[in-house]
Amino acid sequence: MVAMLPHSTDKLSITNIFLLFLLLLEISFATDNTLTCVDSICTPSLSPSSSPSIMSRAVARIVKGIATSDGAGVRLKRTIGASIDQVDPFLMLDEFKSDNANDYIAGFPEHPHRGFETVTYMLAGSMEHRDHKGNTGNLIPGSIQWMTAGRGIIHSEMPKQENGLMWGFQLWINLPAKLKMCEPRYQDIPPSEIHSVTKNGATIKVLAGEVDGVKGPVKDVYTKPTYLDILLPSSSSYSHSIPAEHSGFVYVFEGQGNFGPEGSQTTISEGNMGVLGPGSVVEATATSSSPCRFLLVAAAPLNEPVARHGPFVMNTR
Known about the structure:
By secondary structure, the chain is mostly beta strands. It contains one helix and 28 strands.
């Protein structure tokens, strides 16, 4: 809401002075960027009208990965969706990694989804995707699949290998109420369409968003996401700008790194996530002892009610 100033008069009345005070108070609230965490839900209170000055994002909360299993017994590590319920619009983040076939061979047999998007990014191994409409696809090392479940899809993701390393991530992103019943669609993107940028020693693989003019292949997503796979050599640094109004997190999956503004950085080790606070720049530095590889993910929050029951995510029950 934007308050309107009253028409000009010869003298400001007490009422008009009070209205002016309310307007100034509203502006001050609009520019108060904080991270609100209530009942394991983190929602940045960020406004597009916030100050344009550059501000480094500190780590507001560290989320430890929790060992669990899903599908038909696939072992994985979960951050969002476990000790923290969501980081609007992100509903779940899993990392699956094992060279023991017993940990993944049973895969993810047929199961439904509705009302959100699933993003699968593979680092090693191979899985086959099938759905009830006859669509198929292969997830291979370096590929990404962005599936918009919309009004509903029944699909499976099954290993195409009997041994060796299986390693990847699955991220769930909420859809706004007006798109929850949209037609399902896929963006199956092979490694050849994903490009990298090298900057100050860092290697940045651009899955979604843009880095130095290089755009990720994922397109036409409502929340305008950034999804980067970043490798920092030991003792090197990298910074990346993301919109101040976007929620964001980093997830370290190799080594450890320091994140946040100089003088108040937070160390995050392998298998843990850092929820980012307010600001417009993410700063990262690998420790002197080892390189650091991490995901940097951000998107526009929806600020809508979430009614979630397993693989169904709507606004009301």
